[in-house]
């Protein structure tokens, strides 16, 4: 009897908890509206929205390869399955044309769509929650005045129970703190603006902060470095692997042009971020640079002098080598030709990387390369294999890919040589199997920024929204 | 001395191991199909096939090529007996000045060996790295389509030659 009573009690408890959870997770729909007319929005507000959308990088996820801008359909591979980015053009049937400003604001603040369904955190509302109502109004005005594109979003490919959206209420309970950014009174207005943008719309942590097993950013390891679509996102805190410490000035240059003379060029998922940043208000880009530089902190005297030494050594290199063209046959003197990696570097790489032509048209001296100093060889493998194709219709960095020319073993030997010669970091382990994995496509490497065939919306200027 | 296998033949060449493959092909082996265009791996005039992949020979030092199979346009057929790729380019009259054509043929060969029935879209995407200043792109695409058809119907004899 007692047992039955116990079981009955437990069952009641489960049912009550279940009802409680559903009540907790339940969100009601917000009434659909007639799609607002373009003329109903103040052009100044639309312009501000355009700048903010560039910082939010909306077009990168919400545009599929070869697709119309903001019309969604891009598959996002996650450890849990594939999520398809939605259509955020004002199309009334397949886009957000019937969303009111309130519904849009709720999606940003709480991660709930117009119909009341919880959104997957692939949409980074853990950051977007910090955006003010005022800025959401501008973003809404911008998106609702874009061209409406009819494009059905494919269904997500997720296993049970993750495919039940109510489960996300539990995820939110554990990891999500809703609320607008609160300024730090001890800091300057510019710093606060940068922090607001970087932590909010810019969602830098989405890639640069490591994630836990449930896909949430580890708050205790803010900006400690993470990964994104088969690329390593380097640490933005004191652990930044850049051999020359970043400053607000150099970060601003990098963010707004995609390259910086003493750090190199933005590639992988970072390339469209910088391509978009060009369209943002210059003061906002500068504010983000100021904030990120402060997160990195003042470098130690030792780190600073090592950086200065690297800059000096790489400028000495230029004088000694004097390579006239890629075909010139001048070897750097110190290369040990018995080391196959050294021989490949001298023959195939040094002609550009030691030619003394400035970045982005000449190769970066590798002593200054963050990629060679980073925790993984992933990014340099991607670039050696696939190169940097010339961007369509504008000037930019170039490098031929060596996928057909170099074997996995040769790339591994080359990287081992570069790591040993140009950095003071411990050797990378197991480079060769990683090269093979990447080549075989096992790492879901995002090559959109490396494709110049019109696939990549933001890094390809013909697919980019024009500047205001 | 470096050992190279070009169009099925082994060669011993006496050049510095850092010499770009293009110079060895043209100056040492007198295989003049591949052209020097930009020298930066950006225009595709120097494209050859190595183990079934398209490679810019101007930026590829021979030190990395020991034991690899290199194929140039000379390996696709002869003047008397052109291979399907060459035949198709002649039939479509795809060359204007012709400087880019050997590179075009070799990059196209890589694609058609994998899939002789490649679609227009696949051909265009695949050929993207190779430039043509005369603007004969439409004829080049038509020639590649034709080459694909020829390959599908080619005799055992020609199939062997395109190895």
Describe the structure.
The complex is a heterodimer of chains A (468) and B (163). Chain A is 42% helix and 4% strand. With 468 residues, chain A is mostly helical. Chain A has three domains: 17-175, no CATH class; 189-296, Orthogonal Bundle (Cytochrome Bc1 Complex, Chain D, domain 2); 320-463, Cytochrome Bc1 Complex, Chain D, domain 2. The longest helix of chain A is centred in the first third of the chain and has 24 residues, at 2-25. Chain A is globular. In chain A, 46% of the residues are buried. Chain B has 163 residues and is of the alpha+beta class. The radius of gyration of chain B is 15 Å and the shape is globular. Chain B contains six helices and five strands, in the order E-E-H-E-E-E-H-H-H-H-H. The chains are: A mainly alpha (468), B alpha+beta (163). The interface between A and B is medium-sized, with 29 and 27 residues.
List the SSEs and their pairings.
The complex is a heterodimer of chains A (468) and B (163).
Chain A: H1 2-25, H2 43-56, H3 58-61, E1 75-78, E2 81-84, H4 101-110, H5 125-128, H6 133-144, H7 167-175, H8 189-199, H9 205-208, E3 226-228, E4 231-233, H10 248-257, E5 259-260, E6 264-265, H11 270-277, H12 282-296, H13 301-321, H14 340-353, H15 370-373, H16 378-386, H17 408-422, H18 431-439
Antiparallel strand pairs in A: 1-2, 3-4, 5-6
Helix pairs in contact in A: 2-6, 4-6, 8-12, 10-11, 10-12, 14-17, 16-18, 17-18
Chain B: E1 2-6, E2 9-13, H1 21-28, E3 47-50, E4 53-56, E5 69-71, H2 84-91, H3 101-114, H4 120-127, H5 137-153, H6 156-161
Parallel strand pairs in B: 1-5
Antiparallel strand pairs in B: 1-2, 3-4, 3-5
Helix pairs in contact in B: 2-5, 3-5
């Amino acid at each position: 009897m007692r047992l039955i009573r116990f079981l009955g009690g437990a069952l009641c408890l489960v049912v009550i908890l279940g009802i409680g959870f559903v009540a907790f997770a339940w969100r009601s729909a917000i009434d659909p509206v007639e799609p607002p007319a373009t003329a109903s929005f103040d052009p100044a507000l639309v312009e501000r929205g355009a700048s903010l959308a560039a910082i939010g990088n909306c077009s990168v996820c919400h545009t599929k390869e070869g697709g119309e801008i903001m019309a969604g359909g891009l598959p996002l591979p996650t450890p849990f399955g594939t999520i398809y980015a939605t259509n955020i053009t004002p199309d009334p049937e397949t886009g957000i044309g019937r969303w009111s400003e309130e519904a849009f604001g709720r999606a940003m603040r709480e991660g709930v769509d117009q119909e009341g369904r919880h959104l997957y955190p692939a949409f980074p509302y853990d950051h977007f929650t910090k955006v003010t109502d005022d800025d959401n109004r501008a973003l809404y005005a911008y998106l609702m005045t874009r061209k409406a594109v009819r494009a059905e979003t494919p269904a997500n490919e997720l296993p049970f129970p993750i495919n039940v959206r109510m489960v996300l209420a539990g995820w939110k309970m554990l990891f999500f703190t809703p609320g607008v950014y609160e300024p730090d009174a001890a800091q300057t207005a510019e710093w606060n603006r940068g922090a607001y943008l970087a932590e909010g719309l810019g969602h830098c942590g989405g890639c640069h902060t490591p994630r836990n097993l449930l896909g949430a950013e580890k708050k205790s390891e803010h900006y400690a470095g993470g990964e994104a679509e088969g690329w390593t996102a380097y640490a933005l805190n004191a652990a930044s692997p850049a051999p020359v410490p970043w400053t607000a000035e150099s970060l601003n240059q990098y963010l707004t042009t995609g390259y910086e003379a003493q750090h190199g060029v933005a590639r992988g998922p970072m390339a469209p971020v910088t391509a978009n940043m060009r369209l943002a208000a210059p003061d906002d880009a500068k504010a983000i640079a100021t904030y990120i530089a402060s997160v990195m902190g003042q470098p130690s005297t030792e780190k600073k002098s090592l950086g200065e030494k690297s800059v000096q050594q790489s400028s000495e290199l230029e004088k000694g080598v004097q390579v006239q063209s890629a075909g010139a046959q001048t070897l750097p003197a110190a290369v040990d030709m018995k080391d196959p990696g050294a021989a490949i570097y001298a023959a195939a790489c040094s002609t550009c990387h030691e030619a003394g032509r400035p970045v982005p048209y000449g190769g970066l001296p590798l002593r200054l390369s963050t990629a060679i100093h980073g925790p993984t060889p992933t990014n340099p493998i991607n670039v050696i294999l696939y190169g940097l194709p010339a961007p369509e219709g504008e000037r930019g960095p170039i490098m031929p890919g060596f996928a057909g020319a170099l074997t996995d073993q040769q790339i591994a030997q080359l990287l081992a040589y570069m790591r040993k010669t140009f950095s003071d970091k411990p050797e990378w382990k197991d480079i060769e199997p990683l090269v093979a994995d990447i080549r075989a496509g096992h790492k879901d490497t995002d090559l959109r920024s490396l494709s110049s065939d019109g696939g990549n919306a933001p890094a390809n200027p013909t697919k980019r929204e024009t500047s205001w | 001395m470096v050992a190279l296998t070009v169009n099925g033949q082994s060669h011993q060449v006496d050049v510095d191991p850092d010499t770009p493959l293009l110079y060895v092909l043209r100056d040492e082996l007198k295989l003049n199909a591949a052209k020097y265009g930009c020298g930066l791996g950006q225009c595709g005039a120097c494209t050859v096939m190595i183990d079934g992949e398209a490679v810019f020979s101007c930026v590829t030092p021979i030190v990395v090529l020991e034991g690899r199979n290199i194929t140039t346009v000379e390996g696709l057929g002869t003047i008397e007996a052109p291979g399907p790729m060459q035949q198709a380019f002649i039939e479509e009259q795809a060359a204007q000045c012709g400087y880019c054509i050997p590179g075009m043929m070799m990059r196209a060969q890589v694609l058609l060996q994998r899939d002789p029935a490649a679609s227009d879209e696949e051909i265009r995407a695949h050929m993207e790295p190779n430039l043509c200043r005369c603007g004969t792109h439409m004829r080049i695409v038509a020639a590649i389509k034709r080459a694909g058809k020829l390959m599908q119907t080619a005799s055992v004899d020609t199939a062997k030659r395109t190895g």
